[in-house]
Amino acid sequence: MRRAPLIAAGGLLLALAGRASSQEPPAAPAPLAPPYLERAGEIGRETIEAYAPLVEWCRGRGLLLEARRLGEEILRTDPDHAIRATVAEIAKLSVAELGEASRRAGRKDREAFRATLGPLRSRIGRRYVELSKWAEKEKLPAESTDALVRSYRFVQDNAEVNRALARAGYDAIYNYGILDRDEKSAAAGVLQRLGGRFLHPALDRDYREELGSWPEAWGFETRHYQIVSDADHRLLFRFAEECENLHEGLRLFCQGFLPLRAGRPDERLVIWLFRDEPSYEVVLQANGIQKLPRAAGFYGAGNPGAGHRAFFFDSARFYEGTPVEPFRGLVETFYHEATHQMIDLRLDLTQKGSLHRYPSNWIVEAIANYMETMEVHIDSKGKKRFTFGFPGYGGWEAKNSQLAWALYLAKRKKFTPLLAFTTADYAGFHGLPHGYPQAMGLAHFLVHAEGGKYKRAFFDCVREQYTLGGSTKFLWEMLGMTEAQLLDALVAHCAALKVPDAWKSWGNSGGPSGSGAGGGSGAGAGR
């Protein structure tokens, strides 16, 4: 698991997404005819009249996020509508309050809401289809197409509308909306690079099953992942690139040491990406999925209701940036949790049972922590190169907050004694004061010290943890050392790494504010 640092990085995805509404129709290339706009305005007023009572109904039953988003749709049409007060009131609530209200609302209220909203949206969608036919008769082709685009916001299963939009050069994405001609061209490049396509419940059974838990999500498939999301398509496309980067990079990192299978063509790893924290909170609460406190992403193996999905959300609050590199927060969180997911589901070894002679749970987090350091370099011909561990100029520079924190601990000799550290079970490891950064430091030592001399031992630990339930030897025995010698070597390795200038102001105050360095219970505590 990975809990986001309170000042963690992530502006890259935010900048790319721009937090644009996924449901706004594309701007018309030229002013639309006044008679058309008058008729479209009438439909807009009908929409408001239909939605306003439903907003209050949702509010009264605790479906606050649904009420807020319907209210926002009203305000896009009529910014001065009285529903603004209700939307503003709900917007003041905390994420926890929204989630608790959603949990209390229950499945029946949610199903009643959707059963009411569906016919309303169908009626509005049909009104726009009729408007499109009127515009076509009036020889107003741009207006006819605009009405079809508006129609798709409400009705997505009208084959005639879908064919007309395709002829006009639009991509119609189920449960999301429309990509105009320019966006479609850009999306085509993404789809080609990732082997991707959009999903539809009539064609994709797995996506249909996901919709049973999250009816508002749209679907996107890459070679190795199925991603369901309510986020803006630009965010999702960028995120999907990182999905495939991790899949390729982790297999490369483990090559020759740990066999990871690609998975069958019809067997994809499932990711849920939420557009914001309220959506994440409410949907997980509604499904009885136990999210981790203060976590901006987690892998759900063994989590009631979560199956084998991994969960992430876009958040300026969690991903404001670090002094070192302000654009990696969500990427690193994904690399960490998706490493757990991929090793758990794609390790091509037979699990032989749970030995637990020495539980050694540290190694599970060590490899996931280490994969946060992966960087992808793409040359002018589009060829990828992967680097790991953050190589710097004249040595190693710790740009990852967990690795930088390991350096800080090493120089102050605050590492946990290795016997207690390397033999801790799950609960014991997560109760350590600095479990995650020490796991990162130990992983970095095993992979890089003495030219990679101990790298095979690192992967032997991973192999035994996942096949036997723990290591059969103490780590220092595997390396031909004593416990004291290994601790000295670890401290020396970490202390010799370079800390970026931006981190040097930590002094003796206990490390960077909200660095994600804690173990079980501290602020920004472990992943």
Structural notes for this entry:
The longest helix has 43 residues, at 95-137. Helix 10 links the parallel strand 5 (225-229) and strand 6. This protein has helices spanning 11-17, 34-60, 64-77, 83-91, 95-137, 141-152, 159-167, 181-194, 205-213, 233-254, 277-286, 329-346, 362-371, 401-411, 418-422, 426-430, 435-448, 455-468, 475-478, 483-496, and strands spanning 171-173, 177-179, 197-198, 218-221, 225-229, 269-274, 297-299, 310-313, 375-378, 384-387, 391-392, 395-396. The model is unreliable at 3-23, 506-510 and 512-527 (pLDDT under 50). It has a 6-stranded mixed sheet with strand order 3-4-5-6-8-7, sandwiched between helices. It starts with 10 loop residues before the first helix and ends in a 31-residue tail after the last helix. It is built from 20 helices and 12 strands. The chain is of the alpha+beta class and 527 residues long. Helix 1 runs antiparallel to helix 10 and helix 5 crosses helix 11.
Please tag this protein with its features.
527 residues, alpha+beta, two-stranded antiparallel sheet, 20 helices, 12 strands, 51% helix, disordered C terminus
